[in-house]
Amino acid sequence: MIENALGIPILSILILIPLLGAGALFFFPNGQKEAIRSTAFGVALVNFVISLILLFYFDSSTYKMQFVEKAAWIPGIGVEYFLGMDGISLLLVLLTTFTSAIAILASWSAIEERVKEYMIHLLILEAGMIGVFVALDMILFFVFWEIGLIPMFFLIGVWGGPRKLYANIKFFLYTLFGSVFMLVGILALYYAHGTATGEYTFNLLKLYEVSYPYNLQWWVFLSFFLGFAIKVPVFPFHTWLPDAHVEAPTAGSVILAAVLLKMGTYGFVRFNLPLLADASRAFTPFILVLAVIGIIYGAFLAMAQKDIKKLVAYSSVSHLGAVMAGLFALNQQGIDGGVLQMINHGISTGGLFLVIGMIYERRHTRLISDFGGIARVMPVYSALVLIIVFSSIGLPGTNGFIGEILILMGLFKTSATATVLAATGVILGAAYMLWMTQRVVFGKITKRENLNLKDINAREVLTLLPIIGLIFWIGIYPKHFLSLSSASTARIAEIVERNAPKAERAERAAHVEGAAHHTDMNETGHAEAHGGTH
Amino acid sequence: MPAGLNINLYAVMPEILVTALALLVLILDFFIRKNKAALGWVSIVGLLCILPVAAYTNEPYPVFGGTVVADSFSAFFNVIFIIAAIFTILISMDYLKKIGVDRGEYYHIILFATVGMMVMGAANDLINVYVGLELMALSFYILVAYRVTSSRSVEGALKYFVLGALSSGILLYGMSFAYGAAGSTNFMEIAGELGKGDNTFLTLGIILMAVGFGFKIAAVPFHLWAPDVYEGAPTPVTALLSVGSKAAAFAAFLRVFTAAFPAFQADWSSMLWLVSAATMIFGAVVAISQKNIVRMLAYSSIAHAGIIMIGLLVFNDTGLSGVAYYLLVYAFMNMGAFTIVALFRNKGKFENIDEYRGLASTRPLLAFLMALFLLSLAGIPPTGGFAAKFFVLSAAIDAKYYWLASIGVVSTAISLFFYAKVIFYMYMRDPEVGAETAPSSGVIYNIVLFCTATGTVLLGVYPAPFIDMAIKAVRPLLM
């Protein structure tokens, strides 16, 4: 069953294209590296263009799932092949297709060995990530979630740095450990829904409709929390991240930071908040504490790093802490900020890993002390680095600023203390980032090896330009992006809001399901949500 | 009871046919002097012809005086046994030449072991269970010792024989208690006697029988034989032992406990809870430190037995069909993994996991398939291993066994570690300079690998028809 304006199963196509591309690459002879690279990039580019088409057909006025596809998969137990997207998914899918194309471009000269396998893994990974963001069946979601794990395991393990085995085992075991508990939570929810309604299904939209007993919510929240928090990663589950980042090849780091971590935060928005609203409210203080610790602790750790990649990795812990704080502000502004900051972090941190990869290819070192004054020999590179650094810090005019300000505004309504503490993260972020930039980019050239560094070539500029463009686009006119997801975030905020009685909400949901004029209905809901939060 | 004797040869036709086939192979062995592999081909063709008969034999009423029941449950398991036997014989033909004991009796002993398994699956009477189990076990004692030149093989066989005889004794002892308490060896009649008067001896019988079955499925603490026997036995025999023997023991376990002792379900469930939890954790943790690939797979099979037990002890339709489905998937994925091990393992080479290093560059296809089987054993979607674990765990949660389900997922997470280790060596290490390259797979191996890989993936991607079969299979148990 397909319902969308295009009349074609476009989401399945988005997932299938990279898979087919990977399948086609399988038959390429190993030696034809250029052909393999171009094909992989072509596939990723086509997928990106298709995801852009979605933008034109997407109706941003409703929180309802669009481009829905549904087919029976295991009818006996209510598992469906059920895809659909709302604004949040759309943003993340765009980020995924964009990042995948960029990642392939970034691996052009960095990966020389086993190019074919590498590209196959990248494309399978892309399919898995898109699947996670559009799956509306819990089991399908879980399957995609796990599928993403395997190519990443190979990307780090085969093409990684010297300590890749250690980093890889840590990454794999951590994430798998979390996800198996998530599976238990999914099953518990499934049976609770079945007992309550008599219909056993993993259909997320149907699972939304039931209000679960608080005790069950509490445990399911905990099991989901383990799965998602490890992925995000929330302090104290973050220890796998720096290792994985440092050992992963550049493209691996880019995808890891830009998209894979977002799978965790996406899980919180898509599942924890709307499914387990009561437990979400109960857990809010706990999560805010962890988020704030993550922000500050991550920033301090970043400050102490000697390796640039590790510094950026710890900055991710700090930034993702901010995203979590925004989501668990439990109001629309906070969630808006959280969602936008997911995208922002993808862009800026992805960009940072790219520029680190470029300098690493030239010097085969990432130690801050090995650089200094490279602005003199690589002016173009340094200018672009500076812009990305500004975006990461959240300088006004760049995307980071919008996300952070929304998060802090939303958070203020929930907890002033948390806001003050979270805001220190912004200052600390400026401190470690600028300090690093100063030591690497500015000053005198202290090392002889740096005298002859070549500035970045056209391909590398081409890799970075879209990122720079997005930084300013979101920074100057964020409405384009915010408006895509605002209906969904408003809906989620409405669901978790304390005073919304559950029965009324369920009734309205049922009404909206059936009503033909869903847009009108939604606007009422929208207005109410605003009324509640402002 | 002559009135209810109800002789129906059709119901036991699969068993009769496999026995006849075994006898045919036994006779042919005298005439075929040189090329013993021909006997293997005869067995395979015969089994392939019997397969549809076994799959469609479905007589829901007990026959032969209530001792045998050829229902959908036994048909489902018969299919598993026959498939496992076919794969085993296929990989044996080359393997036996390799180890230099290319003898004819091997094939008919495998067929007799298969008959034993089938008798266990269709038994509706304690005596029949025992006869089937002994036929299977005696065949395996011989098969395990088949690498006569290797002291490991003989040691394994001796261990298996001594401990197996002991466990058979315990099982029989338990059966005698059940008989004494209920006055019958028939499952239905035992079930009818339950709850009348003092059940102390019946309880004792149940415990002792659980020990006997626990030995055959290698549940902790009755698992001690498994690693040594698995390592010592010829690899195809190990594969059959881990797939067929385990499935047969589970089939009988399921049938005895659900048909004869349903009234004691709460009691035996809580007993099996402990066994299952210990088996899952112990198997997974100990497998981590194994260097030998067969021993690793042995402990992995112990861990799997623990997870399968969950489905038995929760005692609902999801759980029981989960057990059946799990064993079907396990037949494919474990058989696949053992096929690759059997292919490589030769004269002390490719014994250890680190000898698999760099396989991805020397034998990319085999490395890929091995990775597929291992990931399936680890329960990573979209493979059959995931679907199987999913059904069993879902049954546990349905029955509110949250802790057991959590232990199950923890065991799964731990087990990923040692499965991934093999993948590490295959993909993330370069081949050792000067090391012997892995042998290539011939046509026969390719057929087995293709079938097992297809089964592993298909059961994960499109489980719907097969889970329906499993549900249909266990329906007689729940009536």
Task: Kindly describe this structure.
The complex is a heterodimer of chains A (about 525) and B (about 475). In chain A, helix 13 packs antiparallel against helix 17 and helix 16 (about 400-415) runs parallel beside helix 18 (about 460-475). Chain A has helices at about 10-25, 35-55, 85-105, 115-135, 140-145, 150-160, 165-195, 205-210, 215-230, 240-245, 250-275, 275-305, 310-325, 330-365, 380-395, 400-415, 415-440, 460-475, 480-495, 500-515, 520-534; strands at about 1-5, 65-75, 80-85. Chain A is built from 21 helices and 3 strands. Chain A is globular, with a radius of gyration of 22 Å. Helix content of chain A is about 75%, strand content about 5%. Chain A has a domain at about 280-475. With about 525 residues, chain A is mostly helical. Chain B is an all-alpha fold and about 475 residues long. Chain B has 2 domains: about 1-260, no CATH class; about 265-480, no CATH class. A two-stranded antiparallel ribbon of chain B has the order 1-2. In chain B, helix 3 (about 70-100) runs parallel beside helix 13 (about 315-345), helix 10 (about 235-260) runs antiparallel to helix 13 (about 315-345) and helix 13 packs antiparallel against helix 18. The longest helix of chain B has about 30 residues, at about 150-180. The two termini of chain B are about 25 Å apart. The model of chain B has no long low-confidence stretch (mean pLDDT about 90). The interface between A and B is medium-sized, with 34 and 31 residues.
- Give the uncertain stretches of chain A in residue-range form: 511-534
Task: Give the terminus-to-terminus CA distance of chain B.
Answer: 24 Å
Describe the main β-sheet of chain A briefly.
3 strands, antiparallel
List the secondary-structure elements of chain B in sequence, H or E: HHEEHHHHHHHHHHHHHHHHH
Detail the poorly predicted runs of chain B.
none
Overall shape of chain A: globular
Round the mean pLDDT of chain B to the nearest integer and report it. Answer: 89
Biggest interface? A-B, 34 and 31 residues
Helix/strand order of chain A, N-terminal first: EHHEEHHHHHHHHHHHHHHHHHHH
Share of helix among residues of chain A? over 70%
Instruction: Please outline the major beta sheet of chain B.
Output: 2 strands, antiparallel
Strand content of chain A: under 5%
Sheet/helix structural class of chain A = mainly alpha
Total beta strands of chain A:
3
